[in-house]
Amino acid sequence: MQFAGQERRRSARTVANVPGTATFTNGRQVACTVVDQSETGAKLAFASIGLLPERFELAFGLRKARSVSVVWRRGSEVGVAFV
Fold this sequence. Notes:
The chain has strands at 14-23, 29-37, 41-45, 55-60, 66-74, 77-82. It is mostly beta strands. The protein has one domain (14-82): Beta Barrel (Thrombin, subunit H). It is globular, with a radius of gyration of 13 Å.
């Protein structure tokens, strides 16, 4: 049984707080902040999300863009899994 506040992630997250760019299949780009990250995903914060697709490319830091899939949404924050 899982209790509120108990860690359920497969890998530990580390604080990032770095700027990122979400690029959609239509070429549209939206700035975001990568709040934290792990080997399997990240938490992103957007100033304005609008319509966010279920999959997009995410670039941040010195990493090349990676495909991500939305796992959860909460207000202006989104959890994504690297695919």
